[in-house]
Amino acid sequence: MSVIEDKLKLLPDNPGVYVMLDKDGQIIYVGKAKNLKNRVRQYFFNSVKTAKVMAMVSNIADFYYIIAPSEIDALSLENNLIKKHKPRYNILLKDDKTYPYLKIDYKEDFPTLRVTRKIKKDGAKYFGPFMGGINVNGVMDIVNLVYGLRPCDKPLNKDKIAKPCLNYHIKKCSAPCAGLISVSEYKENVSSAIAFLSGDVSDAEKIMRERMKVAADNEQFELALKYKEGLEFLDKIKLKRLTSLNKFIDADVLAYRSDGIYSVINLLFVRSGRMVGSKNFSFETAALTSADALGEFVSRYYKSGKDVPEEIIAGEEIADAELLESYLKAESGKTVRIIFAKQGVRKQLSDMAEVNAEEHLSVAVDRIKHKDDMTVNACRALKEKLGLKNYPKRMECYDISHISGVDRVGSMVVFIDGEAAKSEYRRFKIKTFEGNDDFRSLQEVLSRRIERLESSPEKFPKPDLIIIDGGKGQLSSVKEIFDEKGITGIDLISLAKREEEVFLPGDSRPVVLKKSDYCLRMLQRIRDEAHRFAITFFRSLHGKRSLSSVLDGVKGLGQVKKDALILRFKDLSGIISAEKDELTEVEGIGDSLADAIISKLTEEGLK
Question: Across-strand partners of 116?
Answer without folding.
Answer: 101
